[in-house]
Amino acid sequence: MSLPSFANVVAISDLFKISLDDLIRGDDELMDKLTKNQKMGPAAKILLWAIGISIVLYGLSMALGLQADDVHSIIRFPLFICLIGLLFTINWRQFNRSLSKPAIIFGIIFLTLLLVPEIYGFVHGATEAIVSAVKGYWEGYHSLP
Known about the structure:
The protein has seven helices and no strands. Helices cover 82% and strands 0% of the residues. By secondary structure, it is mainly alpha-helical. The protein is elongated and about 100 Å long.
């Protein structure tokens, strides 16, 4: 048994001059089907799959004896590629319409917390590389006869 489309339900409601609430709620079987047929949304699928795969990968990394720094350096490039792919495949017009003010605030906080350690690591690494290069240059320069 398939469910009628929403447009058909509205047309039936108009035709028989009864409210949508009476039309739908009056049929207990239809109400049961509507509540049971609720599918998992894309965001829920992403979240559940990510948690599941993360747990499996955590177990695999522990079995291989990898440290947290090793795992972090291994996933850095695939993470960047996935981020670029995600940014290019999102329907931004529809996405922007669905964001509420609290979602925007939490998004800003989340991205800030995600980016601060990365920026710190980049700046710290670049600074160390520059200082090391300058020290090497000066030590090489002063050791000339």
